[in-house]
Design a protein that fits this description.
By secondary structure, the chain is α/β, with parallel strands linked by helices. About 35% of the residues lie in helices and about 15% in strands. The chain has twelve helices and nine strands. It has an eight-stranded parallel β-barrel with strand order 1-2-3-4-5-6-8-9, surrounded by five helices. α9 packs parallel to α10 (about 215-230) and α11 runs parallel beside α12 (about 320-325). The radius of gyration is 19 Å and the shape is globular. The structure holds (3S,4R)-3-hydroxy-2-oxopiperidin-4-yl beta-D-xylopyranoside. (3S,4R)-3-hydroxy-2-oxopiperidin-4-yl beta-D-xylopyranoside binds near residues 176 and 238. Keywords: Carbohydrate metabolism, Glycosidase, Hydrolase, Polysaccharide degradation, Xylan degradation. Its EC number is 3.2.1.8. It holds the Pfam family Glyco_hydro_10.
């Protein structure tokens, strides 16, 4: 008999999966049995919820919430302010020119409050701001319409609007390449600024889009230690362990090799050991999917390539990595 992953981890942290309208059906039994937290893969992003100004489309998000209520799952909200999957109208006037600061702040506030008030009590935490730190170099924030039009304080404003909309929601900053030493320090600098200014932020989301070679366990451990020193809770928000490293561009594999699976098992084993060590600060570990039959890594970043990044195979059966993680 296969034990339930989330039940095994009940004393440590939530176990989550990203879902979409297709996997909510095709992976239904797997989700019910093994995960006690759900994140919408795309359905709560700006372009999904407010494709046109004032036109809110909640159907897919509502369906996820209904599923979560029926099966008693927690829901993480993802995401309110991001440079991707945000419609152009948000930043532009009718004539195509960029809006001014006050207009964009007003639009941000309307979006955040409309969405968060609708799901008050149903969504216990939100990725309020996603991926604003520049990957390389000394520049702190990436270039985006948000910074260009509002200025650097758009981050403070987003958290303040979010806190006003739902004072009970835990508010997160979420980013990727979070274990890269340079980017980690920049994320820490940005968040320390928020904390020092009294901005309502309660957690850091570490996306954890990793592969079977990198980042090194040592870098992951150091990053977790650094984030933990902020005194906020940590969520692993989008974990997947790709079987390809960054240079591997092969497209001919129809199944993972034994060596890949072996490495993946070792990686999952040591990563979950690490998470357990820090389970006083790590309160949730979410995978960016449920099982290997669907992952956004199919076709990305290499087209025509499949990937097998999870603990369950394409038939929703446990892989050797699953057995290690629950051992
Ligand atoms: C991805 C989805 O998985 C894809 O379906 C979509 O096409 C692009 O976005 N960081 C994030 C997530 O915060 O929202 C992204 O999700 C993956 C990277």
């Amino acid at each position: 008999d296969v034990p339930s992953l989330y039940e095994v981890y009940q004393q440590h942290f939530h176990i989550g999966a990203a879902v979409n309208p297709v996997t909510l059906k095709s992976q239904k039994e797997l989700l019910i049995k093994h995960f006690n937290s759900l994140t919408a893969e795309n359905e709560m992003k700006f372009e999904s919820l407010q494709p046109e100004e004032g036109v809110f489309t909640f159907d897919n998000a509502d369906n996820l919430i209904a599923f979560a209520k029926q099966h008693e799952k927690n829901v993480r909200g993802h995401t309110l302010v991001w440079h991707n999957q945000t419609p152009d109208w948000v930043f532009t006037n009718k004539d195509g020119s960029l809006v001014d600061r006050d207009t964009l702040l007003e639009r941000m506030k309307t979006h955040i409050s409309t969405v968060m008030e609708r799901y008050k009590g149903d969504i216990y935490c939100w990725d309020v701001v996603n991926e604003v730190i520049a990957d390389k170099g000394q520049q702190l924030l990436r270039d985006s319409k948000w910074t260009e039009i509002i200025g650097e304080d758009f981050i403070d404003k987003a958290f303040e609007f979010a806190h006003n909309a739902d004072p009970n929601a835990a508010l997160f900053y979420n980013d990727y390449n979070e274990s890269d030493p340079l980017k980690c320090e920049k994320i820490i600098t940005m968040i320390k600024g928020l904390v020092d200014r009294g901005v309502p932020i309660h957690g850091v989301g570490l996306q954890a889009h990793w592969n079977i070679y990198s980042p090194t366990l040592d870098n992951i451990r150091k990053a977790i230690e650094r984030y933990a020193s902020l005194g906020l809770q940590l969520h692993i928000t989008e974990m997947d362990v790709s079987v390809f490293d960054h240079e591997d561009k092969r497209t001919d594999l129809i199944a993972p090799t034994e060596e890949m699976l072996q490495r993946q098992t070792e990686r999952y084993d040591s990563m979950f050991q690490l998470f357990r060590e820090y389970s006083d600060v790590i309160t949730s570990v979410t995978f960016w999917g449920g099982a290997d039959d669907y992952t956004w890594l199919n076709d990305f970043p290499v087209r025509g390539r499949k990937n097998w990044p999870f603990l369950f195979n394409e038939n929703h059966q446990p892989k050797s990595s699953f057995w290690k993680v629950i051992d």
